[in-house]
Amino acid sequence: MKAKILIVDDSSLSRRIVRGILESAGHDVTEASDGIAAIDSYAVEKPDLVLLDLVMGGMGGLEVLQKLRESDSEARVIVATADIQSSTREMAAQAGSRAFLNKPIRREELLTAVNSSLEGLDL
Amino acid sequence: MISLNERQADALSELINMSFSLTAAKLSDLSGQRLRLDPPAIASHPIIGLGTELDVFSSGEVVSVHQAFSGTFSGDAILCLNSEGALKLSNLLVEENLPSPQLDISAGEILTEIGNMLLSACLGVFGNLLQVHVSFSVPVLHRSSFEQFLDLLTVSGTEMRHAIVIKSSFAIHENGPKGRIAIVLSLNSLEQLIQAVDQWDTEFQERVLKS
């Protein structure tokens, strides 16, 4: 399965780590370093999946998630954050995320969440 | 003066240790190097005199990652290291064979993200414990003298008069850098935290007795 995945994170370290894992699994990856760029990139690239950080300068991840889901109710989004609070997990789920991962991200849990989130797509 | 007693400090230490252990294990996976965070020692202190608690950094540059947090429980969370320790920690996650000889922009960004992970893990424990949502700001890296660093702490606001200081060491190879995390918060927030720790400890003891 080869999917087009958009990574949204203001940390280049986190983007590099996630890109490495996803590309090694055969996926095509694009990146955005803030919320506005993420929304623009989503409209242009039409990725199959978005991997989204929550704490970012400017537009926060939850707002990005809400806007993506408003523009495309089928948008598939995985939240990846250092925030371990159960309340944050619940907020992300309510906003429509398909999975919630805590940083630092492990390869196995990322690929499991990606595969699960891509289920039903004809790739 | 309100402060954590031995039992409260022990309970909070155990909660944070669990969260740190998970974060350290994941960082080890990423870096391919054994990384351990020693069990933290925790105490609360008035903000005046905090310099003594952090005097391991009193010579040379202090590198600190600050993450403000807000909500029912608010304040400023800070990870601090000396410059040598900061460089060692950031070099853990640089690409192979490209360790940085100095704390440049790239190394600083890596350190900021490591700080974000550790501080969020720590604050997340507080949020889950208090059963309140804590909102985080974007983490910011500061490099300063020890005196400037103390100024950064003491100008946080008139209500920010206490700090929870978490002392831990990053064990990397044989000789890892020592780090400190300080959670600067208001008296009201400290009181709430202590009450929540007591409640958690009581409930934990009850569950142990029932099982």
Task: Give the overall shape of chain B, derived from the CA principal axes.
Answer: globular
Biggest sheet statistics of chain B? 8 strands, antiparallel
Overall number of strands of chain A: 5
What's the mean pLDDT score of chain A?
95
Tell me the radius of gyration of chain A.
13 Å
Portion of residues in beta strands of chain A equals: 15-25%
Main sheet: strands, sense, barrel of chain A: 5 strands, parallel
Q: Which structural class fits the helix and strand makeup of chain A?
A: alpha/beta
CATH topology of chain B: Chemotaxis protein chec
CATH architecture classification name of chain A: 3-Layer(aba) Sandwich
Compute the gyration radius of chain B: what is it?
A: 17 Å
Query: Which regions of chain B are unreliable across 5 or more consecutive residues at pLDDT < 50?
Result: none
State the CATH class of chain A. Alpha Beta
The pLDDT mean of chain B sits at: 78
| Helix-strand sequence of chain B | HEEHEEHHEEHEEH
> How many helical stretches of chain A?
5
| Largest interface pair | A-B, 24 and 29 residues
Task: Walk me through this protein's architecture.
The complex is a heterodimer of chains A (123) and B (211). Chain A has helices at 12-24, 35-45, 61-71, 86-94, 107-117; strands at 4-8, 28-32, 49-52, 77-81, 99-102. Chain A has 123 residues and is of the alpha/beta class. Chain A has a single domain (4-117), classed as Rossmann fold (3-Layer(aba) Sandwich). In chain A, helix 2 packs parallel to helix 3. The longest helix of chain A has 13 residues, at 12-24. Chain A is globular. The model of chain A has no long low-confidence stretch (mean pLDDT 95). The termini of chain B are far apart. Helices cover 46% and strands 27% of the residues of chain B. Chain B is of the alpha+beta class and 211 residues long. Chain B has helices spanning 6-31, 50-53, 83-91, 105-130, 146-154, 187-210, and strands at 35-37, 41-46, 61-71, 75-82, 134-136, 140-145, 162-172, 178-185. In chain B, strands 1, 2, 3, 4, 5, 6, 7 and 8 form an eight-stranded antiparallel β-sheet that branches. In chain B, helix 1 (6-31) packs across helix 4 (105-130) and helix 3 (83-91) packs across helix 4 (105-130). Chain B is globular, with a radius of gyration of 17 Å. Chain B has one domain (6-210): Chemotaxis protein chec (3-Layer(aba) Sandwich). The model of chain B has no long low-confidence stretch (mean pLDDT 78). Chain B contains six helices and eight strands. Chains A and B meet through helix 1 and helix 4 of A and helix 1 and helix 4 of B.
